[in-house]
Amino acid sequence: MAGQPQVNDTFRNEIASNDLGSSPREDQLDPRGDSQCHFEISRAHKQPISSTQFTGGDWHWRLVTNEGLILAKAGGYPNEGSCRAAVIALQQRAATASVQLHTEERP
C-alpha cells in the first residue's frame, strides 16, 4: 500500500533477537539530506519464558534510509495503533523540533 510503513524480514529478525543494530556514525549521514527514508513497523514475536509468561509481542518502529542505515528506532508499544500514532507524530513534528543537550543524568 502506498504511504504505509513497510516491514522487512531483517527487521523482524532483529527484533526477535533484540539486536536492533547500532546508531549511525556521523560520517554515514548525508548532510544534504538527499537520501530517502521510510518508517518500518513490526511486531516482535511472542516467545514463552515460562509455561504461563511470554515476552515480546510489542510493536516497534524504525526510520531507515533506502540504503538500509537505521537513523532512529523505538519499541515497546502495546498495539499497532499506538505505534503508528508515534510515527505520525514524528512525521508531523520532527522537522521543527529543537535539539536540547542534557548534561545531567536523568532518573
- The count of strands amounts to 5
Q: What helical percentage do the residues reach? A: 10-25%
How much is the average pLDDT?
Answer: 77
Q: Strand sequence of the main sheet, in spatial order?
A: 1-4-5
Q: For the terminal residues, how far apart are their CA atoms?
A: 41 Å
Label the overall shape.
extended
Secondary-structure element order, N to C: HEEEEEH
Rg? 16 Å
β-strand percent reads 15-25%
The structural class is alpha+beta
Largest sheet: 3 strands, antiparallel
| Number of helical regions | 2
Show unreliable segments.
1-8, 11-20
Please supply descriptive tags for the structure shown above.
three-stranded antiparallel β-sheet, 5 strands, two-stranded antiparallel sheet, alpha+beta, 107 residues, extended, single chain
